[in-house]
Amino acid sequence: MGRRIRYFVLISLLVATAVSAGWAQSQEDNGIIEDLKLFSKALGAISEAWVGDVTPRNLLYQAVKGMLGSLDKFSEFIEPERFKLLQIHMRGEYAGIGAILQIVNNQVGIRAVEPGKPADKAGLRPGDIILKIDGISMENKSVMDVSSLLRGEANTPVTLTVLREPRQIFDVKIERAKIEIQAVQDSRMIGKELAYLRLAEWQEHTASQTDTVLEGFKKQGMKALIIDLRNNDGGLLTQAVALAERFLPKGKKIVSVQSKIPEQRKEYFVTQSPAYPKLTMVILVNEKSASASEVFSAAMQEHRRATLVGVKTYGKGSVQSVIPLDDVSAMKLTTARYATPSGKVIDMIGLIPDRVVSNGTEGTPGSDRQILEAIAILKQYM
């Protein structure tokens, strides 16, 4: 009887949510009330009669997963552990120790430590093996499992039992700290006036981190810039818009977004004078450059602010919203599509670079023909 009561509470919540969201203002609205009765009947039968053990929450998770899977390849159910990681990547920060992990002989070890972060200050080194965390054995644990245990609230302690060859085992107590994920993965001057930076993702700190790097380049005399967006599969649309504003003239359109949701249905224009209005630029793209990377690249290409070099991009012209379902899970739902400043829709099509250049076999001399082409375009600044 207890299970049946819980089940009816869940169904009531479903119906209440539908009504509060304006999806079922009458029994005729898309027949959703009748459809929920069908779902209610199936859920009730499975909960009460299936020969195995099952929880209503898991059944609901599976139902949501099935619904989203029927829509498009980008809409999906996000399970609790993945939801945590997604939130970290969207925020661009987490509280942890600043160690990069890897599997070494079926054990989780440290591949690298971030300079100045808690792991570095505590004396951890690449090659150290993590045997225990707060007394809990890490035997047969995955990198994801260990990473999850190392994360927590800022300014809270965590104790690691570490193996350091040759057979030195010791405990180290580390205080977690807020760590900002670096969207700019590589940045350097490669000529007297030519700068290069590689953006790995579009998260909440992408534009501000890029500002810091560009300010440093400016002090070194930068007059031309290569932005490498190869293998950057997207992230926050707002960050692509923000970065475009650094280079495009005030009043220029960046992107148009079409959606059923009024707050998302919008045309984005440059609202301020650009910080770098005359900077000569090349953008590197490839078949894995997608979403926000394509938004930024299309705006720069169509306004003739940059030359695109590489191969045709992925072609992801849709926008996904992350909608929490409860405290630990969420769904990623395609809620909008975007068009370039000229009105071009590139979904499933992609962007064609101004200079189409394919790379050679990886690891062979001169295999990165795309960066060589970019440098050739900007050779006057070398």
How many β-strand stretches? 19
| Radius of gyration computed on alpha carbons | 25 Å
| Main beta-sheet annotation | 6 strands, mixed
Per CATH, the architecture of the largest domain is Alpha-Beta Complex
| Lateral arrangement of strands in the main beta sheet | 10-11-12-15-16-19
* Overall outline: globular
Please tell me the overall pLDDT: 89
- Structural class comes to alpha+beta
The sequence of SSEs as H and E is: HHHEHEEEHEEHEEEEEHEHEEEHEEEEH
What is the CATH class name of the largest domain? Alpha Beta
Helix content: 25-40%
The CATH H-level homologous superfamily of the largest domain:
2-enoyl-CoA Hydratase, Chain A, domain 1
Please mark out the parts with pLDDT under 50 across 5 or more consecutive residues, or reply none: 1-28
Number of helices: 10
The separation of the N and C termini measures: 77 Å
The fraction of residues in strands falls at: 25-35%
Count the domains. Answer: 3
Q: What is the fold named in CATH at topology level of the largest domain?
A: 2-enoyl-CoA Hydratase, Chain A, domain 1
